[in-house]
Amino acid sequence: MGRKFFVGGNWKCNGTSEEIKILLSLLNAGQVPSGDVVEVVVSPPFLFLPSVRTTLRSDFHVAAQNCWVKKGGAFTGEISAEMLANLRIPWVIIGHSERRALFNESNEFVGDKIAYALSQGLKVIACVGESLEQRESGSTIEVVAAQTKAIADKISKWSDVVLAYEPVWAIGTGKVATPAQAQEVHLELRNWLQKNISAEVASTTRIIYGGSVNGGNCKELGAQPDVDGFLVGGASLKAEFLDIIKAAE
Ligand code: PEP
Fold first, then answer.
1. How far apart are CA 57 and CA 148, in angstroms?
2. Whose alpha carbon is nearest atom 6 of ligand 1?
3. The domain made up of 5-246 is a member of CATH 3.20.20.70
4. Burial of 195 (0-12, 13-18, 19+ CB in 10 A)
5. What are the extents of the domains in the chain?
6. Which atom of ligand 1 is least distant from the CA of 234?
7. What is the pLDDT of residues 30-77, one digit of tens each?
8. Where are the transmembrane segments (predicted)?
9. Atom 1 (ligand 1): residue with closest C-alpha?
10. Which of 4, 68, 142, 237 makes a 20 to 30 Å CA pair with 34?
11. What is the pTM assigned to this prediction?
12. How far apart are CA 104 and CA 88, in angstroms?
C-alpha cells in the first residue's frame, strides 16, 4: 500500500535540441503536485540525456530508453548500464514493445537486461503487454504473465522496478484501454506477483499503464485501484504531459 503515483514520459526517437529546449521550458515552468505525491521521470533519446538531466527541474528525473544486456565492450552502437550509472542517469526503460517487436528482444533477453541494469544500480521501468491478436484470442493474461515471469526468474530487487503494462494495440494508436480493461490486467499482474513472488512485492510494486494516455483519459484510468501511474509516449512531448501528471492528485 502507499504506492507513490509514477508518471514516465517516453520521448522515443523524437526531438531536435531546439524542440527539447522548448519542451524543457514548458516542463520546468509547470505547476504539478509535489514529489511526495508523484514521481516523474522523462526519457529523452540517449544523445540528449546528460543535457536534459542538468537542465530539467530537480523534482523530475531522467530515464534512458534502453541499455545493453551486459558489461560494455565490443558492442558497436550500444550503451551500457555502467555508462548510464556513471553519468548519474537513475532510470532505464527496458522491454518496450517497440524494442521487442522491431529489435526481436525476447522475454529472456529482456529479463537478462533488467537483471544487469539493476545490478549496476539503475532503476527499471519494465514493460509488458499483449498484441491485438493475443488479446482477441483471449491470451492477454497468459502473455503478460509469461513476460513478467521471464523478468522474475532473473531478479530479486523488485523495489527498484516499476512494471509498465502497455497493450501493444494501444501504443501510439489513439486506441486507449478502457479503465476496466487496464484495471483487470493490473489486478491480474498484482495477483501474479503475490502468488509467485510475495505479498510484500505485490503490494508495493507500482504497476503503471501505457498506451494512448492523454489529458482527457488520464483521470479515470488513474483512479483505478491498481493503476499506479502511466508511461506516456506521444503526449509526453506536449504541455498535456503536465495535465497527466496532475492525475496523481
Ligand atoms: C509508449 O510508447 O510507451 C506509449 C505509451 O506511447 P503512446 O502514449 O504514444 O501510446
1. 33
2. 233
3. yes
4. exposed
5. 5-246
6. 9
7. 999 999 999 999 999 999 999 999 999 999 999 999 999 999 999 999
8. none
9. 233
10. 237
11. 0.98
12. 28
pLDDT score recorded for residue 34: 96
Contact 124, 160 (CB under 8 A): yes
User: What are 53's three cell numbers?
Assistant: 538531466
Which atom from ligand 1 is nearest to the alpha carbon of 98? 2
Is any atom of ligand 1 closer than 6 Å to the C-beta of 231? Answer: yes
d(CA 190, CA 234): 27
What is the whole-number distance in angstroms between the Cα of residue 76 and the centre of ligand 1? 27
Question: From the CB of 172, is ligand 1 less than 6 Å away?
Answer: yes
The string of pLDDT tens digits covering residues 179-232 is 999 999 999 999 999 999 999 999 999 999 999 999 999 999 999 999 999 999
